[in-house]
Amino acid sequence: MIDLLGKYDGRIVIAGSGLAGLMTALTLAPQPVVLITRAALGTETSSAWAQGGIAAALGSDDDPQLHLADTIAAGDGLCDAEVVRTITAAAPAVIATLERLGVRFDRDDTGALSLGLEAAHARRRIVHASGDASGASIIEALTWAAATTPSITVLERAEVRELLVEQGAVTGLVVARGKGVFAIRTSRVVLATGGIGGLYDHTTNPTSNFGQGIAVAARAGADVADMEFVQFHPTALVSNSRPLALVSEAVRGEGAILVNDRGERFMAGTDGGELAPRDVVARAISAEISAGRRVFLDARQSLGPHFAARFPTIDRLCRNAGIDPARQVIPVCPAVHYHMGGIVTDLRGRSSLPGLWVVGEAASTGLHGANRLASNSLLEAAAMGLCAGHDLAGTTADPVMPVPMKRTVSPMADASIVRPFVSRHFGVLRNATSLRAAIAGLLPLAESEAAAANPACVGLLMAVSALLRTESRGAHARTDFPSKDATARRRIMTLAEALDFARDHTQTLARSA
Q1: Residue that terminates a domain, selected from 316, 334, 352
Q2: Which ranges in 166-248 belong to alpha helices (H)?
Q3: Is residue 447 assigned to a domain?
Q4: What is the pLDDT of residues 330-352, one digit of tens each?
């Protein structure tokens, strides 16, 4: 039985309290909005865990065109140039807006913003807040701003289970909170629900992030794109903790090198060395591990006794694992860090489903292409939160629609059954045999009404997209198709199309067996 939260009818509803969701809500003030968050406001969000900062062309030797060029180069042929141009040009304004909202970015002795260097950036353009605790510092400031903004109503410990759709447009959403299930009738919904890292054993994301926004939007008919492109951060701290702690790329930006257990600097002959694009570094580390070697990040010469002052958060994480990074090498491995795919949106944040906006990692704007450039994720989240907020401010609520009160509602999602399929069959390196095994295992789960259904739908979209991309490009590496196609093509699909493909493919394989 579904109850109505009638007092919120007609309001804009935003699901997710990371950077993208908070920026959307704050941009809309003083227009009333409802902000739904799965945990306490600003927690269980990847944004708060970001050690890197925000990429912005602010240096005297930099400009947005250089930032654009670096982004497109990292995206390996699949970036939308107009999207890249718009978002990189907006970066200085994004930084200024965040400062007005209370974020205190790091500055040098002259009062100028301190700009860091990360992989595949031609200039120092990474703006940090509180050193390597940038995400936490930014979210803390925006959480305070949201909590003290009267127009924002926060519903904590609530999650979106379903979008309500009539005649091809959003008419509301179903929310689970405590022991109750409720409906909010609205024609304007924003999903800012984060990525898919929780589908993997080795991840730096909250383990509860399985792509829930992608699942509910795809089930409602929204288009998805680039689902096969999963970025593995090369240097997660090897430990028994889950999720894995991140050793930021900024450590390599300050001169740390990668070595194996033979003491060999195996990235020395690679263009860019340790600061090559993330997919290149992740594959190189994976190759070392596959060959039976261990991999370490060595900051002893570059930082040494200065490590703790420059990277206090990482120093604490290392020491918790029994490592002194000033005097010892740091054991690292690749771990899922970011998803370039998601729900297709335009530069206003609008999806293909009328009434649905998507911002942040759950969206696929075309900014990242096949491989995200470091620190462009927080930039995109903030910039698209602003864009969606401004776009929504110019809309009006449609009349509320009736909701069928007696209906089956999907159970609380459980990704535990799905995680082994995803982790085993489409990690850093993929091939047709493993992807077909993933599809065969995920299809019955995706078609079920079990708790694994939504995570399985997301995994199936990823596996089908990966099988159909018979090339290696960016973060997508096929051992059976190691070359890159001459023409780069972005693939957009619906969940219905992915399910049809999976059924036909599975039946064809069964007949040929």
Answers
A1: 334
A2: 212-219
A3: yes
A4: 999 999 999 999 999 999 999 99
Pair 323, 415 in one domain:
no
Measuring CA to CA, how many Å separate 157 from each of 56, 69, 178, 353, 439? 34, 41, 7, 26, 32
pLDDT of residue 406: 61
pTM: 0.92
Residue at a domain's end among 273, 307, 334 = 334
Q: Of the residues 219, 278, 430, 478, which is catalytic? A: 278
326 and 411 in a single domain? The answer is: no
Q: Are 30 and 205 in contact (CB under 8 A)?
A: no
Q: Which of 286, 369, 298, 287 is nearest to 327 (CA)?
A: 298
Instruction: Report whether pLDDT(91) > 80.
Output: yes
Q: Give the max Cα distance, the chain.
A: 71
Average pLDDT over every residue of 429-445? 95
Say yes or no to pLDDT of 102 above 80. Answer: yes
Residue 1 has pLDDT above 70, yes or no: no
Cβ atoms within 10 Å of 268's Cβ, excluding its own: 11
pLDDT digits (tens, 9 = 90+) for 376-429: 999 999 999 999 999 999 999 998 888 776 667 888 999 999 999 999 998 999
Question: Left (φ > 0), alpha (ψ -120 to 50) or beta: where does 342 sit?
Answer: left
3-class SS string, 443-461: HHHHCCCCCCHHHHHHHHH
Distance CA 124, CA 164 (A): 46
Q: Is residue 247 part of a domain?
A: yes
Domain span at residue 431 reads 406-512
421 assigned to some structural domain = yes
Instruction: Give the start-end residues of each E strand in 50-203.
Output: 54-55, 115-116, 126-127, 152-156, 158-166, 169-177, 180-185, 189-191
- Exposed/middle/buried for residue 192 (C-beta within 10 Å: 0-12, 13-18, 19+): buried
Residue 187's pLDDT band, with cuts at 50, 70 and 90, is very high
CATH number at residue 439: 1.20.58.100
- How much is the pLDDT for 48? 75
* pLDDT tens-digit map of 6-48: 899 999 999 999 999 999 999 999 999 999 999 888 777 888 7
Domain count, the chain: 2
Please answer whether residues 336 and 243 qualify as being in contact, where contact means their C-beta atoms are separated by less than 8 angstroms. no
- 326-329 contacts at long range (C-beta below 8 A, 24 or more positions apart): 326/299, 326/300, 327/300, 328/300, 329/259, 329/296, 329/297, 329/298, 329/300
> Strands 330-339 and 230-237: what pairing?
antiparallel
CA–CA distance, 463 with 431 (Å, rounded to integer): 10
Q: Is the dihedral of CA 57, 58, 60, 64 positive or negative?
A: positive
Residue with tokens 């205190």: 104
To the nearest 10 degrees (0 to 180), the angle between helices 432-446 and 418-425 is 160
Q: Is residue 377 part of a domain?
A: no
Query: Can you give the CATH number for the domain in which 257 is found?
Result: 3.90.700.10
Q: Is 350 a catalytic residue?
A: no
| Gap between the Cα atoms of 82 and 80, Å rounded | 6
